[in-house]
Design goal:
By secondary structure, the protein is mostly helical. The protein has 8 helices and 5 strands; from the N terminus they run αββαβααααββαα. It has a 3-stranded antiparallel β-sheet with strand order 2-1-3, covered by helices on one side. Strands 4-5 form a two-stranded antiparallel sheet.
Length: 198
Amino acid sequence: MDDDYFSLQAILADNHKLSCTFALDVEGLGYLEGGSEPNIQQHAKVELPFWLAQTLSLNEFTTFPLPPPYANRVRSALNASAQSVKLSNLVGGNGWWYRWGRRIADVLDDEPQAELLNMLLRAFIGRLPALQDLSAHHASSDHSIPESGAGTGEAFRDGMEGDERELRCRGNVAGNEMTWIRRGEEAKRRRGEEAKRR
C-alpha cells in the first residue's frame, strides 16, 4: 500500500469525498459550498475531497463522521462473513477500500483510529483465504473459480477491491512461475532417469 506522492492509487484514495462540518466561521471559502455566499458559517456541512478534508480536520477547521464504507453496518457485515462483502462497491469505481480506510485512520483520534485499523486488519485476514484460493486455482491448470463457504469464488472475485486485485495478480504470477519451475524440474528428473536406463 503505497502512499507515494506520484502513486495513482494514493491519488485515487485521497479523492473520495467526505461530508465535513465546519467548526468555525471561515472567510473567503464560501465557494466550497457552491453558493454565492463569500464565507462559510460555523456548522455548515460541505462535501470535500479527502485531501482537503484531512488538512482542514488536522487544523481543527472541520470535523467529519466516519464515512459509510467504514460504519457499523459494514463492520457488522464483515464480522458475519468478510468474504461475502463486496468491498469494491463500498468506495465506488472498484476503489481502494483498505487504502482510504488507512488514510482516514491517520486523521482520527486514538480510540476510533484503533477501531478502524482493527476492522481493516480483521477484514483482510478474513478475506485472505479466498484470495489465496483464487490465486492458486488460476495459477494451476484448472482455471475454474473455487467455491468458498460464503458463496462462489466468482462472487468474491467481483467484490475484491484494488489492493486485493493487485495481490491476486501477484499471486497468479508467482503461481505461474512455480508451475514453470516444477515442470522444468520434472523434465530434468525424467532426463536423468532416462540417462540412467541407457
